[in-house]
Automatic annotation (TrEMBL):
It comes from the Eukaryota. Residues 488-525 are annotated as: Disordered. This is STEAP family member 3, metalloreductase. GO terms for biological process: copper ion import; iron ion transport. It catalyses: 2 Fe(2+) + NADP(+) + H(+) = 2 Fe(3+) + NADPH; 2 Cu(+) + NADP(+) + H(+) = 2 Cu(2+) + NADPH. It is a multi-pass membrane protein.
Length: 605
């Protein structure tokens, strides 16, 4: 009680202080808790219309959280008694709403499909003034048109509609929220109704997220319909790569030998060919993870600024890097398992026996080849290390792990270790190939071996990265990423050409193209065509009589232009009159500060 009086007096003080000095008052009252949602409060009586799966799961959960539940069905007698959770008051729809009104409750959940909402119109009077919670999902992704919740609000204008709970399945409601991350998106136009639903959410153990007014309902309704939208592109790319590599390997090692020599290698298709395609896909996909970063760096170097947006395709590609990396990891892991299994399959046993038999027939006692031993050891070691580093990358891209790293640690793992993994994978393939690429038998039917094809993109990425590490590129890139811009792309250039109009603009644009200095540009822009002869004559005398002095200088990447026009008495008075208003208007349009003082215009930017 004392506490309540104390807080009431505090808030009175706070209000008066706000009135006294609005600007100095803090945005939030520091004495009030930021989260004002009460934890234990929520409507103790809830009505659910409909007696289906969602209704029964929700009522079970509400009961377990201490709420009274009244369920309204079109035909309560039709339901098997053991289907309705014990403790739920099953009534007709009208009786349920009357019971809710008697108990002073206001929350009505509509656990019906939206096409059945009009069947509730006879209950309009009973629903008036109540909060209708629309739990329905969209039937298809449409991104336009009215949402179910908006249609419901139109049907019942005297009730307030809140959208929510549609992201929870009946199963989740039954089993409960095991972690705090179970979010319930809530939206509605009435703040008090929304608050009541949010409070109930918290009471049920979910975290409510207010996503705005009822106009956001479509997005909330469609949210559960999305099927891995960010994975579509990467999955398609990986699948296409796999199909291409698989068909290529099948053509080179199965189909053509069969057609040419009748050699039956069909059994390769099940395991060997898959294991030829998988590492190629893993390697190329990993290269695709680091390629957009290279393109972005090259683009920034070329443009000399980081403030111009990347093209859409590059943006999308950059956003798909995480998914591409995880798919690359999947392919690499599958390749590792397939490779381990290669030696335990029946065909491998036969091949070893045949080789041993041939060796005995040839009288060879020792088949040890030092070079081949090194090759296979290095091949395996680099492969295992590459997969290990890739696993670290995959782990850190999981949100729960990634969030424990600071930005520098995350960049180190994703970029530094990522390139290490790519280099180790390239080494793994190179050790696999060894000197194979130098022999003509590695090119059956003039088809280059698959490992050679899969190396092209990763090698380009690694070489590109090494080139970018060269001081001339790295220093410039570092400067650009710290906000530096090359004079070519500074905003003043664009502003300047945009600000001028007509003939002057054409001339300035032309001189920008030909790389003239600002001084030359302003000279050429102020020079009237008809006076060109006069100008030439004046330019010859310029050293003697400095008509206009223009200085441009740059500091720390930001262009500053200082223009000084001397308007002291001189024989070129008519020209001064032409120059002065032009420079003044230029200064105004470019938003430069300028001072006009005793015949001298000074411009600073
Ligand atoms: N099931 C789930 O996991 C989830 C469902 N939802 C949403 O919840 C709502 C209900 O889903 P769910 O419980 O699975 O569906 P059900 O089919 O299991 O239940 C729907 C209920 O609507 C009532 N009903 C059926 N036909 C009509 C009609 N012609 N006129 C009026 N009422 C009718 C019935 O109740 P009665 O006969 O008692 O009147 C029926 O039990 C849907 O909008 C769905 O999108 C949202 C998230 C998850
Ligand atoms: Fe391998």
């Amino acid at each position: 009680m004392t506490k309540r009086v104390y807080s009431a007096s505090l808030s009175r003080d706070f209000e008066s202080s706000v009135k006294m000095d609005d600007l100095s008052a803090p945005l939030l009252d520091p004495r009030e808790p930021v989260d004002t949602l009460p934890l234990s409060v929520g409507d103790p009586v809830v009505c659910i219309l409909g007696s289906g799966d969602f209704s029964r799961s929700l009522s079970t959960r509400l009961l377990s959280c201490g709420c009274r539940v009244v369920m309204g069905s079109r035909d309560p007698g039709r339901l098997a008694p053991d289907l309705v959770p014990a403790g739920v008051e099953l009534k007709t729809q009208a009786q349920a709403l009357e019971a809710l009104a008697e108990a002073g409750g206001s929350l009505v959940f509509l656990a019906l499909y939206p096409e059945h909402y009009p069947s509730l119109l006879p209950l309009k009077a009973l629903l008036s003034g109540r909060t209708l919670v629309d739990v329905s999902n969209a039937s298809a992704l449409q991104h336009q048109g009215q949402s179910n919740a908006q249609i419901l609000a139109q049907l019942f204008p005297c009730s307030s509609v809140v959208k929510g709970f549609n992201g929870l399945s009946a199963w989740t409601l039954l089993t409960g929220a095991h972690d705090a991350s179970r979010q319930v998106l809530v939206c509605g136009d009435s703040p008090s109704s929304k608050l009541a639903v949010q409070s109930l959410c918290r009471r049920l153990g979910f975290s409510a997220v207010d996503v705005g007014g009822l106009c956001a309902a479509r997005a909330v309704e469609e949210a559960p319909l999305h099927l891995f939208p960010s994975w579509r592109g990467p999955l398609l790319t990986t699948t296409l790569l796999f199909v291409c590599f698989y068909l290529y390997a099948a053509l080179a090692h199965v189909l053509l030998p069969f057609l040419d020599r009748g050699q039956n290698n069909l059994h390769h298709l099940a395991l060997v060919t898959v294991n030829q395609a998988l590492p190629a896909v893993a390697l190329v996909t990993l290269a695709l993870v680091y390629m957009p970063g290279l393109f972005a760096s090259l683009l920034q170097l070329y443009r000399g600024t980081k403030y111009r947006p990347f093209p859409d395709w590059l943006d999308h590609w950059m956003c798909a890097r995480k998914q591409l990396g995880l798919l690359s990891f999947l392919c690499a892991a599958l390749h590792a398992v397939y490779s381990v299994c290669l030696s335990i399959r029946r065909a491998a046993g036969y091949m070893i026996l045949n080789a041993a038999f041939r060796q005995v027939k040839q009288g060879v006692a020792d088949s040890w080849e030092e070079a081949q031993v090194w090759r296979s050891d290095l091949y395996l070691s680099s492969g295992i290390l590459g997969l290990g580093v890739l696993s670290v990358l995959a782990l850190t891209s999981l949100p729960s792990v990634g969030h424990t790293l600071n930005w520098r640690e995350f960049t180190f793992v994703q970029s530094g270790l990522g390139y290490l993994s790519l280099a180790l994978s390239v080494a793994h393939v190179l050790f696999f190939g060894w000197d194979m690429a130098l022999h003509s038998w590695a090119y059956p039917y003039f088809l280059p071996p698959l490992f050679l094809l899969s190396l092209v993109l990763p090698c380009c990425v690694l070489i590109g990265r090494l080139l970018l590490l060269a001081p001339c590129c790295a220093l410039r890139l570092h400067k650009i990423r710290r906000g530096w811009e090359s004079s070519r792309h500074q905003p003043k250039e664009r502003a300047e050409t945009q600000a001028l109009s007509g003939d002057v603009q054409k001339k300035v644009k032309g001189s920008v193209k030909h790389g003239k200095s600002l001084r030359q540009r302003i000279y050429s822009s102020v020079r009237p065509e008809s006076e060109s002869r006069e100008w030439r004559r004046r330019r010859r005398r310029r050293r003697r009589r400095r008509l206009i002095s223009l200085f441009s200088f740059q500091t720390q990447g930001k262009a500053k232009v200082k223009v000084v026009v001397n308007t002291e008495p001189s024989p070129t008075r008519p020209l001064q009159q032409h120059v002065q208003p032009l420079v003044t208007s230029l200064a105004v349009t470019l938003d430069w500060d300028f001072i006009f003082d005793t015949g001298t215009v000074r411009l600073h930017h």
